[in-house]
From TrEMBL:
It comes from Algoriphagus aestuariicola. Residues 42-169 form the VTT domain. The chain crosses the membrane at residues 21-42, 62-86, 151-175, 181-198. The lineage of its organism: Bacteria, Pseudomonadati, Bacteroidota, Cytophagia, Cytophagales. The keyword Membrane applies. InterPro entries: DedA-like (IPR032818), VTT_dom (IPR032816). Belongs to the DedA family. This is VTT domain-containing protein.
């Protein structure tokens, strides 16, 4: 069992995803995390940051402009697909029993996040794991205005991808030796990006108790 878990963690390693699949797999993972509800566990934030650090190297030999544009499109299309799924199948999903791949509590968390921040949540929520995946599904379910959603979807996709990719890209330029500490960087990113999710989860629990 331990070996199985270790193999799964290795498959989800941002560095391994880029090394083995290059740009194509990178785009597929970003699309899946944004567009398919069972992609909530994928390492989107750390993957974007690492892609920026590896951009221009033999492992990811593309220009930074093409990389940011392609990733933003993948995230944008993913959200549009997720909205459509929520619009068409949201009620059916809610009627199903919880499983590892879908929990109604995740959808409720995204709904609560949107209620307090309105359309700004579509941009800010991109930076929070789980909420990032379930938010467009939630908005499709409640029939949120599609045109407004798409505007904020475009802004959110561009801000999320460009900020993380460019942060990794310029950090590599300023501190080139950091490329030798990728594992530590990825672990640190996972910890940092998990903090907003934990805070949101604890806040919802406090609200229910009160």
């Amino acid at each position: 069992m331990i070996e199985f878990i270790q193999s799964i963690l290795e498959l989800l390693s941002p560095e391994l995803i880029i090394r083995r699949g290059g740009l194509i797999l990178l785009l597929a993972v970003i699309f899946t995390e944004n567009g398919v509800f069972f992609g909530f566990f994928l390492p989107g934030d750390s993957l974007l940051f690492l892609a920026g650090m590896l951009c221009g190297l033999p492992i990811l030999d593309v220009s930074i402009h093409l990389l940011v544009l392609a990733l933003a499109i993948a995230a944008f299309v993913g959200y549009a697909v997720s909205y459509y799924v929520g619009f068409k199948l949201g009620k059916w999903l809610l009627s199903r029993q919880d499983s590892f791949f879908f929990k109604a509590s995740y959808l409720n968390m995204a709904s609560s996040y949107f209620e307090k921040r309105q359309h700004g949540a579509i941009v800010i929520g991109r930076f929070i794991p789980v909420i990032r995946t379930f938010l467009p599904l939630c908005l499709g379910l409640i029939r949120s205005d599609f045109r407004v959603f798409m505007v904020y979807n475009f802004i959110g996709a561009l801000v999320w991808t460009s900020s993380l990719v460019l942060a990794g890209y310029f950090l590599k330029i300023i501190f080139p030796d950091l490329i030798h500490y990728l594992e530590w960087i990825v672990v640190s990113l996972i910890v940092v990006t998990s903090i907003p999710l934990i805070r949101q989860f604890l806040k919802i629990k406090r609200d229910r108790v009160s």
